[in-house]
Design goal:
Elements: E1 2-11, E2 18-28, E3 33-37, H1 44-52, E4 59-64, E5 67-68, E6 76-79, H2 83-86, H3 93-103, H4 111-121, H5 137-150, E7 155-159, H6 167-184, E8 187-192, H7 195-201, E9 204-208, E10 216-221, H8 233-249
Parallel strand pairs: 3-8, 3-9, 6-7, 7-8
Antiparallel strand pairs: 1-2, 1-4, 4-5, 9-10
Helix pairs in contact: 3-4, 3-5, 4-5, 5-6, 7-8
The chain binds adenosine-5'-triphosphate (ATP) and magnesium ion (MG).
Adenosine-5'-triphosphate (ATP) binds near residues 11, 38, 45, 46 and 211.
Amino acid sequence: MLALRNVTKVFGADAQRYIALDGINLEVSEGELVCLLGPSGCGKSTLLNILAGFDAASDGSVHFQGAPVRGAGKDRVMFFQDAGAALLPWLSAEENVRFALRVRKVPKPEWPAIIDKYLAMVDLAEHRRKFPAQLSGGMRQRLQIARALAVEPKVLLMDEPFAALDALTRRRMHGFLLDIWRRTGTTIVFVTHDIAEAVTLADRICLMSVGPGSRITEVIDVGLARPRDLADPGAAQLFKRVEALLTSEK
Ligand SMILES: Nc1ncnc2c1ncn2[C@@H]1O[C@H](COP(=O)(O)OP(=O)(O)OP(=O)(O)O)[C@@H](O)[C@H]1O
Ligand SMILES: [Mg+2]
């Protein structure tokens, strides 16, 4: 589905030159949920922006379904960390979803059914006329999920989407996301610096090293049944292993 070969990203020039990514190789299969895990500043957002086509690699190749990525595409949707900034404050919940459908040129007769379906999926059907400012933080994140999924992208790129939420809401959002992922079969690349979140969600965890010249240092096949509980021995063991790997990196 997605393939990165030897991707390098250099920012700036001369004295300002900074090698953010150095030789990233990654393949993501259709329907997979991959987590990119690494410390702040290691280049996770940079990598996601390259996958989205918002930014170009300095070197190496990026392919989506066998074709080189040359810019943003409607099959790859980015989910930003700050839902407040991503949602349109002057539009209600349902109008925010409708807006995405219009932008993506989904035929108008299909809009009402799609809007109903995705608002129901994230449990916001009863709040459809509220504006973003009238929703809680978790509701805004769910609305952003509904809006992202309504255009039925093949790939969802999520940049620390739940970092700002309290632990309980975050856990609920994980449940929502896994449920929707199972039902839609969307391929997900999920960026986080939270080991517990990666262990809870991922099919595979890709560990990134600290920059400059950040790389993927380890790829772990998780292989644990879902839903996962971090108190279960398998998950706890994996958490410890990932923690040790990240600590030894520094
Ligand atoms: N436009 C830019 N110009 C110069 N340097 C940049 C630019 N964007 C990112 N960088 C640098 O690249 C490195 C990686 O940044 P990036 O935002 O990808 O990190 P991150 O892993 O997403 O961190 P966080 O977890 O804090 O969000 C940082 O050192 C950052 O300063
Ligand atoms: Mg980031």
